[in-house]
Specification:
Elements (H helix, E strand, L loop, with lengths): L1 E6 L5 H14 L4 E5 L5 H12 L4 H24 L3 E5 L2 H11 L4 H12 L6 E6 L2 H7 L9 H17 L4 E5 L4 H15 L1
Parallel strand pairs: 1-3, 1-4, 2-3, 4-5
Helix pairs in contact: 1-8, 2-3, 3-5, 4-5, 4-7
The chain binds thymidine-5'-diphosphate.
Length: about 190
């Protein structure tokens, strides 16, 4: 089972992904957690490039996909052996940020996503939805992706993507306290496991 967490910067998805990982682990379920970009050694090097250089949008898009390609290679065997894999960001991030956020061609991004994942899709995606102003108030290390106007478009993009695949997405109101959001996640997990 592949579970992904998505949302804008400061939406709290990293916290919730980690809580979910710990929760499943305590239940005795074999579970792994990775983040994007990164999650592998080459992926982490790619992450450094993405975080430290002001890159051309096309370079940026290809680097996110390159990092993902390595991660997919890493997680395929884990899924095959029956582990649950939790990802802090995956293909929907690229559609939301580079597509809806930066205005790059959505079909091109879908094609690249399919290329690097070989068609691997999440079984379940939690979208932590929150107003960018609220989210940015929570972010300590602001990155160059943390522009309120960009994040507004990213948020709207995420909501559109979720609407297109209601059976995969669970949209959570992330302006609520962390504990309440996590309870909702647990309820969903209990019905799925
Ligand atoms: P990160 O520090 O991981 O932020 P967060 O904790 O919010 O996930 O930085 C990842 C940044 O990269 C984040 O601003 C979103 C952006 N991003 C994309 O623009 N496209 C992508 O495909 C991915 C995976 C991330």
């Amino acid at each position: 089972m592949l579970i992904t967490f998505e949302g804008i910067d400061g939406s709290g998805k990293t916290t919730q992904a980690l809580r979910t990982f710990n929760y499943l682990k305590e239940k005795g379920i074999k579970v792994h957690l990775f983040r994007e970009p990164g999650g592998t050694d080459p992926g982490d090097q790619i992450r450094n490039l993405l975080m430290n250089y002001d890159l051309d949008p096309i370079t940026e898009l290809l680097l996110f996909e390159a990092s993902r390609s390595e991660l997919v290679r890493r997680i395929r065997p884990l899924l095959k052996e029956g582990s649950v894999v939790i990802l802090d960001r995956f293909t929907d991030s690229t559609l939301a940020y580079q597509g809806y956020g930066r205005g790059m061609d959505l079909d091109l991004i879908r094609t690249l996503n399919d290329l690097v994942t070989g068609g691997l899709r999440p079984d379940l995606t939690f979208l932590l939805d929150v107003d960018p102003e609220v989210a940015l108030g929570r972010v300590r290390d602001r990155s160059r992706f943390d522009d309120p106007d960009l994040l507004r478009r990213v948020r709207e993009g995420y909501l559109k993507i979720a609407e297109e695949e209601p059976e995969r997405f669970v949209v959570l109101d992330s302006s609520l306290p962390e504990e309440k959001v996590f309870k909702r996640i647990v309820t969903v997990l209990e019905t799925r496991f």
